[in-house]
Every structure is written in structure tokens, then in C-alpha cells.
Amino acid sequence: MPFSKLGLSDKVLAAVQTAGYPNPTPIQEQAIPHVLARRDVLGIAQTGTGKTAAFVLPMLTMLEKGRARARMPRTLILEPTRELAAQVEESFEKYGKNHKLNVALIIGGVSFDDQDGKLMRGVDVLIATPGRLLDHSERGRLLMSGVELLVIDEADRMLDMGFIPDIERICKLVPFTRQTLFFTATMPAEIQRITEQFLHNPVRVEVSRPATTAAAILQQLVKTGREPHDKRDTLRRTIRAADSFKNAIIFCNRKREVAQLHRSLVRHGFNAVALHGDLDQSARTAALDAFRSGEAKLLIASDVAARGLDIPDVSHVFNFDVPHHADDYVHRIGRTGRAGKTGTAYTIVGPGDGRAVAEIEKLIGQSIPFADALPGDPAQADALAAPYDSASEPRRDDRGGRNKSRGGSRGGHRGPPREHHREAPRVEAPRAQDARHEPRPESPRQETRPDHRPEPREQRQTAPVARIDDARHRQAPARPREPAEPSGGDHLPAFLLRPIRGKA
Ligand code: AMP
């Protein structure tokens, strides 16, 4: 069915045409007519299915009638992370460029007063993370009694992040008669309960998991040793050996590992940025901008930080850790092989990961083969086993020399992309960037709000969220000293060695 048959306004259809979308995606085709008919919608869909436009386009159509009043937003969209909220705001800019609507972003980590000023001027679309929204509401700066339409996006991620109590509070602050659009990728019992409590006779719209897209993704396991430095070494060799490498997202299970791995990769001369919950907003934005623009080739991220980010055209995904939840594997590898392109997903598997891999294979209904031996695999290349004497600060001369001597060792293995075979000059790892990504304490007020509790799934493994936050802010984050790592295959393609200049 073409967009023109869905009931969208002419202005919205013009914006869709400008965006160049030939046809609605399944979630758009199924959801948009119901949204326009003012029905509650329960959408079971993941990012990458076009679900953002499935609610933004009909909202724009509906908002063409009526006007915003001071402090009383007409519509409210809840997102679990600041990045997702910012992404939805971008969608309103993109599709709503023919409209004169006031769109406000209410997220943590940015000025409260600026947000207050926007609310005062009247808001048609309020996009918010739950914690900061409740802050404004508790201070009496925001009235939710005028909300005609509520969108709860990525509800299962809200659950993971401990936001469900906040969502319940917000649902009670908006009028009972509002329309609700509820999106989730999965339906755990707690989400089921929320939908029964807060949706009124919803239309259920379900689009298939990206298991179909996975056909475009080459998935492989890569064997590694037990120690952390084994994994880092395996990762570096896997990156260097990757075919048709353009850029990659590297997933870790914990935000601390994200920071450690980032430092390690930068020290080894890789052009990498990191994204995790301890970074302040400007550092997150700078990291994402650097990766999206191609300035940085590697983005190291945790699941929570990367969830739902629209980063088109990623050639590779590396699972530095096998995810604890099989669902996360599907989300992670879905970052590549998008929009008709092919992609590759490598998962580094250590001796204790068997059960987690079996869970994944069960979920995706296929077994994932092991990759061929990589260049510099210690098991087969004794010549590469000599430890590097200063792994923490490789020098220009050292690196150049080693590159030369290793050139031949690639022999019969799969090499890096052809255009990158040229020897690269050694560039010092960008020190400033390291500093930019050091975790910075947030203000005490921010600590108390759930949208400033980054990565709770990671935190839950050790202690309640609040305590961890306290601990995080009491102790300066230790700069981990890595053991000298074996230096298998230090050949680096030139594009991975370019230093990155931070924008923030
Ligand atoms: P989402 O699932 O909302 O994160 O959307 C994923 C991507 O699909 C975004 O980059 C959108 O620009 C794109 N997109 C949304 N709707 C369509 C469509 N009808 N045709 C092609 N691409 C689309």
C-alpha cells in the first residue's frame, strides 16, 4: 500500500517524498491508520523497522489542528535514553519541516532552565526521558493534564533500566482519555501487565524480528583464551583480518569494560570512540558524531548506550563479550546488514561462554560457525608470541619496524581489505580523547533520577543502583593498568590510525 493511502496529511506526504521512502514499512502500514483513527496501539517491533516514523508521521498529521498552551504539552513521547530521545527529535525535524510545531527535548545532563523556558513557551511535542520529566513535573513547571497522545517507546528497555515505576507514575499524571501508543521489542510479563493496565482496547501490531535481516549478516564465533588480554588480542587480530572492513561497533557487557577496551584500543593506535552511561552528554554526542561522520572507525558501546541508535551502514559488529541475554545478540548484530547491505558479526568466545552461545543459537534457530584461524593466532604462529616490551605506549619507530617484519606472516590467511594493505605511518594515540571520555561525576540532583542511572543491568549484577552510583561518585575512576599484551600482528590500516579531534 502506498503512503498516500494511509490517511496522512499532504504536508506529511510531501516530507515522506523528500525523505525518499518509496513505500511504508510493515509497521508503518499497519499502525498509521489506527493511530489516525485515535486507537491505542501496541506495536511489537524493534528499531530498524521504521517504527519511529510509524508514530511521528501520524502525530504530525494530527497536530496540524490545535495549538499548544504554556506548560501543557499536547503530546508526550517517552524514551529510555537521551540518544534515542534526540533521535526522535531529529525525526520530527526531518518529517515536520513543513509544520510549525514546537518540539522540546527534556533529557538529563543538559540545562534545566533552557528546558523550562521551552515548556513555558508551549510545546506541541515533548520528547523526554522519564527521570527529567518527573523532575519538571514535581517542581510544578510542567502540567501533563493537556496530553492528548502518549508514546511509550522501547518499553522493554525501560524495564531493563528500572523505569517502570516512573512510567506508571507518568501514566497516572496524563489524562485517562489520552491515546496511547506503546512500542516494545519483546513482551516479558511485566510489560504485558503494564499494557493491560494502561492501554485501552489496543490494536496489536507485530512485525517480525530481524531474524530475516540476519540472512544478510555473516555470523561467526572467534575462539579466545581465558584472560582479558587474550580477548583484547583476539579482538585486535579479528579487526585487522576483517574482510571489507569499513567501520564497526564493538559491544561489551559492562560499561567499565567499554572504557577499558576503549583505552586499550586507542593505546594500540586504533581510531576508536566509546559510548557508555558514565559519559556526559557532550562526550556521548561527540563520540556518536565522530563515528557517524566516519572520523572514528570503531565505536565501543554497551547495550544500553547503543540501544536503538540509528547508525546506518556499519560493516561489522564485534561482540567483545557474549551478551548475557540472547535478545541482546539479535539487537547487536542488527546494527549491521541494514538497508539491503551485507554485514559481518564476530562474537569472541572464551572458555566460559558455551552456555550463553547455546542460548543465542536456540533463539536464532541456527548454529554459528567458528571463523577460520586468524593471522597471528598464538596457537599457530610462534613467531608472533614474543611479548611487546611497551604495549602501553608503543613508539613510532617500534611500530613501524614491527609492521614490516610481520607483513609476511599474514601469508595464507584472510587479510584486511585490499585497499588497506599499504603500510601506515604510526600516529600517536590521541591523548586528549582519552581524557574526554573519562567518567565525570554528574550533579547530585542528576544522580537521584533514573535516567541518570546508566546501564542498570550491568549494575544489578553487583549491587543496587543507588549504591553503585554513590560509589562511582566517591571514588575517582581507577585507570586500569593492563598487563603487557601479546602483540600479534600490529599492522594497522592507515584509516584506523587517524587521530580524532573531539568536538566537545
Ligand atoms: P527506526 O526503526 O525508526 O529506527 O528506522 C530505521 C531507519 O529506517 C531510519 O533510518 C529511517 O530513516 C528509515 N525508514 C523509516 N521509514 C522508512 C521507509 N518507509 N522506507 C525506507 N526507510 C525508512
Written description of the protein model:
This protein is of the alpha/beta class and 504 residues long. It folds into 2 domains: 3-206, P-loop containing nucleotide triphosphate hydrolases (Rossmann fold, 3-Layer(aba) Sandwich); 217-392, P-loop containing nucleotide triphosphate hydrolases (Rossmann fold). It has helices at 10-19, 26-36, 51-63, 82-95, 112-121, 130-138, 155-160, 164-173, 189-198, 228-241, 255-267, 281-293, 303-306, 326-333, 354-364, 396-406, 431-436, 444-448, 456-460, 465-474, and strands at residues 41-44, 75-78, 103-106, 125-128, 149-152, 179-184, 203-206, 217-223, 248-252, 272-275, 298-302, 316-319, 343-349. The strands form 2 sheets. The protein has a 7-stranded parallel beta sheet with strand order 3-4-2-5-6-1-7, with helices on both faces. A 6-stranded parallel beta sheet has the order 8-13-12-9-11-10, sandwiched between helices. Helix 2 packs parallel to helix 3 (51-63), helix 3 (51-63) crosses helix 4 (82-95) and helix 14 crosses helix 15 (354-364). It is globular. It starts with 9 loop residues before the first helix and ends in a 30-residue tail after the last helix. Mean pLDDT is 75; it is low at 377-504. It binds adenosine monophosphate (AMP). Residues 21, 24-25, 28, 47-53, 310 line the site of adenosine monophosphate (AMP).
